[in-house]
Specification:
This protein has helices at 2-23, 29-35, 62-67, 141-154, 199-208, 251-264, 289-297, 341-352, 364-374, 378-386, 389-396, 400-407; strands at residues 45-50, 73-79, 97-98, 105-108, 126-130, 158-162, 220-223, 281-284, 304-311, 323-330. By secondary structure, it is α/β, with parallel strands linked by helices. It has a seven-stranded mixed sheet with strand order 3-4-2-1-5-6-7. Helix 4 crosses helix 5 and helix 10 packs antiparallel against helix 11. It is globular and about 65 Å long.
Length: 414
């Protein structure tokens, strides 16, 4: 018995030892900057673009780290969507204010102004960017990144990115490039829907490939992570997850966002926003949950499973109604065609319920947003002919290999 207990104690100790090691695998850019004793920032006035995801492994905010760093003068904060402390809901305009903890002026980049103005940058020598993104083009932080780089270049200011992981990994690339005329805050740059780069790598590409307005270039420095490799999704990093927005509560939700988010723009079914599983669901009052689940599972989509689910949303579309549908399970993120999952769901719904075609009930504004998010009107035009995923696969994947080959020169990690 004593020997059995000793073996169990050793196994438990080994488990927790490995767990602690895993948490320390990846060190984000802010920790590497601290290891450098903040040398790139010393003697300069610093403006910081961040939100609650800008933290070290101990969950200490980059705001507070830089505010107390020796030789660093933090003079301004810049707030993307949701605000620097995360106190604004999705889509809400962020106000200019003062950070209550540090007393530093906060300038909004998610309201009437989305790009730092010369006046905002008057007391800034270096703009620093530290935000955890989710690796999907329609998530607005990369638009904020590019616009801030443009502003820095136009005002003769240096730009530093404190790098963080791409939660989807650095290998997967899916979706067509944004076409001219379809640029927006949810698709500002000609990159695929899933682009396989970290914020620092993307900044390098925007800068060097002439993607910034007027092909302007900024004096750019990326402080890379330590310990990250391209095959890592966020759960492999050991880093603490801080939700980048209210509907991305876990790193697994970041995997689901590109799987249902485009479909959600049509507002004809619930994708779980308004319930406890945002982006993980597809449901409506008129769906037979068992039938849809069986239909989708019979497609044998690589790395993806579905199960029937029934729920009542607390808010958003179909608030208070009993809904029936499926929960999406990403079993293997590497194999799963993440951004095509929603098209398979729409395909099967159109087949099972021809009176509920995806685009039929959507108003003009919803259809326009769908096109903006996909970066082209062609996706909707092709898909609506027969609602078959096979019809759009060639178009959807047409730019993937070309983009991969182009973006490789900006890799900071292997």
């Amino acid at each position: 018995m004593a020997r059995f207990l000793l073996i169990n104690i050793l196994l438990i100790s080994l488990f927790f030892s490995n767990h602690v090691d895993a948490r320390e695998v990846v060190r984000p850019g802010i920790e590497v900057l601290r290891e450098q004793n903040f040398e790139p920032l010393k003697g300069k006035r610093i403006g910081l673009i961040t939100n609650p995801t800008g933290v070290d492994n101990s969950l200490c905010s980059t705001i507070d780290i830089l505010a107390s760093a020796p030789g660093v003068k933090l003079t301004a904060l810049f707030a993307p969507e949701h605000g620097v402390r995360g106190d604004y809901v999705a889509g809400a305009s962020v106000a200019n204010t003062v950070d209550s903890k540090t007393g530093i002026k906060v300038y909004s980049l998610h309201g009437a102004t989305k790009k730092p103005t010369a006046e905002m940058l008057r007391e800034v020598d270096v703009l620093v960017y530290d935000i955890q993104d989710i690796g999907c083009r329609s998530y607005t932080f990369i638009s904020t990144l590019g616009l801030a780089m443009e502003a820095a270049a136009q005002n003769g200011i240096e730009f530093i990115v404190l790098d963080r992981p791409n939660p989807l990994g650095g290998i997967k690339v899916e979706g067509p490039l944004v076409e001219p005329g379809y640029e927006s805050f949810v698709s500002r740059y000609p990159i695929p829907y899933i682009y396989g780069l970290t914020p620092g790598e993307l900044a390098r590409m925007l800068n060097e490939e002439g993607m910034l307005s007027g092909k302007i270039k900024v004096k750019l420095t990326v402080i890379p992570m330590k310990g990250w490799t391209r095959d890592m999704t966020f759960s492999d990093t050991g880093l603490p997850w801080v939700l980048p927005s209210p509907h991305i509560p876990t790193p697994f939700t970041a995997l689901l966002y590109p799987a249902t988010g485009i479909m959600g723009e049509l507002e004809y079914i619930s994708i779980g926003v308004g319930y406890t599983l945002p982006f993980a669901l597809s449901a409506a009052p008129w769906i037979d949950a068992e039938a849809l689940s069986n239909s989708l599972n019979s497609l044998n989509i690589p790395g993806v499973d579905f199960r029937p689910i029934h729920y009542k949303p607390f808010y958003a579309i179909y608030k208070g109604e009993n809904l029936h549908g499926v929960q999406v399970y990403i079993r293997n993120a590497e194999e799963a065609p993440l951004s095509l999952v929603q098209f398979y769901i729409m395909q099967e719904l159109a087949r099972l319920y021809p009176e509920h075609k995806p685009f039929a009930a959507a108003g003009k504004a919803r259809l326009e947003m769908f096109d903006k998010v996909t970066g082209s009107a062609k996706v909707r035009a092709i898909f609506s002919k027969g609602y078959n995923v096979s019809d759009i696969i060639e178009f959807w994947n047409k730019d993937s290999e070309l983009f991969k080959n182009c973006s490789k020169k900006y890799y900071l990690y292997r």
